[in-house]
Structures are given as structure tokens and as C-alpha cells.
């Protein structure tokens, strides 16, 4: 075996600490970036944030939709609301202890998931006594609170309705599984009820709340969002503005500026020189972040003119790579720039990534975006005859016939699932 030393020249990309931090700053959300600047300013006296005179606007994002600006409301939680209502129940001291245990055992949906026998064992009580207090808990608002199952939750709410619900309660009590699976024909055969009567019960049930506890969890489920970019139309021209708090600017603290050019090499000068390098790096990183987002937004607006000027369902297919190629940067740079960013358009508040979508075949113009295909699919389902809902194949045929959008039945099923649209057999009304 011959051993020898050989030199080999290779090229490797080495990420310096400053470059790594600059990449992180590019993909920071507004909150993350502002926290980072606050932390750096605590250890670096030269960093001073420029004041912004733009009024702060918060936007409310619900589970599914973005809405116009709202003011956050203070709301009591579920346990506090139940304790307040319990004052009218005139509970004994022991019942109050059981009641407190029960409300602390409720999950976020308002259900009691713990077994009554286990609760009785923990409290050294009989299950009958626990049941008695539970019934009192279930008499409170919101209706259905304290239920041990979806079936019980529905029954409690039906019992509280002012209208006649005896038939509905009988169906839910005795045939809940068939009802939940919408096995209407078998259910009709077993109960003797017509399909239209079962449809009426279904309509009644849909008015109820399957998760009553969520009424008191709004603050946790909702998010107040300030847009990073604001888009508006002026004289028929699409324009945009970066939110200064999402893309902040810093300046050199004026108090320390004279000390940077003293020409004295003492500990203070060395300290300030190092802090000045950090300030300069952060200033450059923030400028680069704004410049990158400005370039990305210009390309998005150029591609999505129809969306901003004609309607929010008219999105063109656009990929991160396409924007990156135009800007002459890597695709990952565009991805980091849009990550976690929100934009306020004339129609809605949405994530910036909404404007990037894959292509689907269009018989007339070559290609359209999958977002547009989904919007047309949703429209077709909303307009269909509910007595004869459209099958996935029929939806695919109509998309091609009316809009020139060519997608397969399987793709229709995939888009339908993504839009939370039920299959035609379940959408059918009688």
C-alpha cells in the first residue's frame, strides 16, 4: 500500500455569521423582526429605531376568512362564565366543590371527557351525586356545555329549543350513527319517516353548535394581524406600500456619533467600533430586506394585474422560480421574502403566498392557476341543484365546457377536499 499526500482544490460556499443572520432577517415575520431589533438595541447603544408615524391597524383573521380592521375585545373565559351563572344555582358547599372540579375538566369544546366514576373516586363521592351536579352544569349557557359526547350535546340543545323537537330527539337518541353517516334511506326504513322529514331534522341539527365551548375561546382561536404590505388602486394603477413596522428602519444614535471619530484607541473606542460594525450590518440587512420585498411585489403586481383590477378570483399561475429568474436571485430568496408575510388588497387580507399557484391546463389561453380553478369549482357547487348535486366527473366536464379549464375527475376530488366540499352523495337534499 502506497501512502502519499495530495493537494486538491475545491470550492465551498461558507456562510459567515453575518450572512446567516441576514438570511434569517429576510424571512422574519414582523413580530420576529421587531423583537430581534429590540434585543440588539438593548446590547448595542448605537442602534436607534426610526419613529413611524403610520397609524397602527390590526386586522382580524378568523379560522377561515380574513376580515376588515377590528378592535380586540376583552372576553371572559368559559370557566369564569360558568362560575358567574352558577351563582343562581344555589349550590351547597359540597356541590360547589364538585361543580368546580367539573368545569375545570371541560375541554376547549366544552365537553366533559373524564369518566364520572373516576371523578367520583377522586372526590370520594358517589357517581349519582356527580351526575346530579353535572345536570345542573348542563342547564347553563351555552347550551350543550358539559356534554359527554356529540350525541348528548345535540340532545341537550334540542331539549332547550322553543320549537317541537320530539321526533328529532328520538332519531338522535336511537339512530345517531345512521344519522351521522347520512344513511337516509336505511334511516327512513327504520323510522318510517320520509326523506323530506329527515332532511328537515338535518336542517334543524345544522343550526346547533357541536362545540359550544368554542364560543368562549375566540381570543385564542383568533389572530390579530397587521399587514406587511398594503396594495391600493389609484387612477386605475395598482400601487403598493410597505408597512414601516414590518420593514423598519434604524439610525445611528446621535449621542454616540462624536465618539466614533475621536482617533483614540482606548477600551471605549474599541467597544464602540465593534458596535458600529454591528449597527452597519443590521442597517444593510434591513435595507436589503426592503429592497427584496419591493422587487418581489413589483413582479407579483405585474403578473396579477387582473386580480387587482378585475376580481379576486382571477389569479394567474405564478411560481417562486419564475419571480426568482426575473429578479436574478435564487428561488429560496423569494421563498424567504414571502414567508409569513401578509398583504392587504382591495378585496381581502391574505398571505402573500396566495399569489403563487401552480398551473392547470386551460383550453383557451394555455394555462390558468389552480386558485382560479378552485374558485370556479366552488361557484359551480354553490349554484348546483341541491336535489341533484353535481358529481366530480360532471364538475370536471362543466369546468371545461364553461371556463375552458381542463382537469381530471381525480383533480376535482382533490380540490373539493381542499375546499371542504362534501361528495355529491352527502350534499344531496331531499
Automatic annotation (TrEMBL):
Residues 23-50 form a coiled coil. Keywords: Coiled coil, DNA-binding, DNA-directed RNA polymerase, Nucleotidyltransferase, Sigma factor, Transcription, Transcription regulation, Transferase. InterPro entries: RNA_pol_sigma_54 (IPR000394), RNA_pol_sigma_54_core-bd (IPR007046), RNA_pol_sigma_54_DNA-bd (IPR007634), RpoN_core-bd_sf (IPR038709). The gene is rpoN. Residues 271-429 form the RNA polymerase sigma factor 54 DNA-binding domain. Pfam families: Sigma54_AID (PF00309), Sigma54_CBD (PF04963), Sigma54_DBD (PF04552). This is RNA polymerase factor sigma-54. Gene3D superfamilies: Homeodomain-like, RNA polymerase sigma-54 factor, core-binding domain. Residues 71-256 form the RNA polymerase sigma factor 54 core-binding domain. PANTHER family: RNA POLYMERASE SIGMA-54 FACTOR. It comes from Bacillus changyiensis. It comes from the Bacteria.
Amino acid at each position: 500500500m502506497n501512502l502519499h499526500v495530495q493537494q486538491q482544490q475545491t470550492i465551498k460556499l461558507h456562510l459567515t455569521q453575518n450572512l446567516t443572520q441576514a438570511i434569517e432577517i429576510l424571512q422574519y415575520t414582523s413580530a420576529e423582526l421587531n423583537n430581534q431589533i429590540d434585543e440588539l438595541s438593548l446590547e448595542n447603544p448605537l442602534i436607534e429605531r426610526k419613529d413611524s408615524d403610520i397609524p397602527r391597524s390590526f386586522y382580524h383573521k378568523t379560522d377561515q376568512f380574513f376580515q376588515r380592521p377590528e378592535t380586540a375585545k376583552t372576553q371572559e373565559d368559559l370557566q369564569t362564565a360558568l362560575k358567574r351563572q352558577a351563582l343562581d344555582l344555589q349550590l351547597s358547599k359540597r356541590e360547589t366543590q364538585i361543580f368546580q372540579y367539573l368545569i375545570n375538566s371541560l375541554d376547549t369544546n366544552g365537553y366533559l371527557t373524564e369518566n364520572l366514576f373516576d371523578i367520583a373516586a377522586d372526590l370520594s363521592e358517589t357517581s349519582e351525586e356527580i351526575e346530579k351536579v353535572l345536570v345542573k352544569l348542563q342547564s347553563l349557557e351555552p347550551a350543550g356545555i358539559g356534554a359527554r359526547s356529540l350525541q348528548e350535546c345535540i340532545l341537550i340543545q334540542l331539549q332547550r329549543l322553543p320549537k317541537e323537537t320530539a321526533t328529532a330527539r328520538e332519531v338522535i337518541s336511537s339512530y345517531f350513527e345512521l344519522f351521522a353517516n347520512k344513511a337516509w334511506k336505511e334511516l327512513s326504513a327504520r323510522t318510517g319517516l320520509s326523506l323530506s322529514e329527515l332532511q328537515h331534522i338535518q336542517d334543524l341539527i345544522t343550526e346547533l353548535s357541536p362545540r359550544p365551548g368554542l364560543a368562549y375561546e375566540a381570543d385564542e382561536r383568533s389572530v390579530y394581524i397587521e399587514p406587511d404590505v398594503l396594495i391600493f388602486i389609484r387612477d386605475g394603477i395598482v400601487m403598493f406600500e410597505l408597512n414601516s413596522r414590518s420593514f423598519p428602519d434604524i439610525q445611528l444614535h446621535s449621542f454616540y456619533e462624536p465618539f466614533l471619530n475621536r482617533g483614540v484607541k482606548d477600551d471605549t473606542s474599541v467597544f464602540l467600533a465593534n458596535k458600529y460594525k454591528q449597527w452597519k450590518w443590521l442597517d444593510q440587512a434591513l435595507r436589503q430586506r426592503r429592497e427584496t420585498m419591493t422587487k418581489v411585489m413589483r413582479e407579483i403586481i405585474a403578473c396579477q394585474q387582473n386580480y387587482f383590477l378585475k376580481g379576486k378570483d382571477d389569479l394567474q399561475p405564478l411560481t417562486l422560480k419564475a419571480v426568482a429568474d426575473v429578479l436574478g436571485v435564487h428561488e429560496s430568496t423569494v421563498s424567504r421574502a414571502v414567508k409569513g408575510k401578509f398583504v392587504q388588497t382591495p378585496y381581502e387580507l391574505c398571505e402573500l403566498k396566495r399569489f403563487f399557484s401552480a398551473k392547470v391546463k386551460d383550453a383557451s389561453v394555455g394555462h390558468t392557476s389552480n386558485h382560479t380553478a378552485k374558485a370556479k369549482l366552488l361557484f359551480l357547487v354553490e349554484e348546483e341543484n341541491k336535489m341533484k348535486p353535481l358529481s366530480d366527473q360532471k364538475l370536471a366536464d362543466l369546468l371545461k365546457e364553461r371556463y375552458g379549464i381542463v382537469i381530471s375527475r381525480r383533480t376535482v376530488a382533490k380540490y373539493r377536499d381542499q375546499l371542504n366540499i362534501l361528495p355529491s352523495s352527502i350534499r344531496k337534499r331531499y
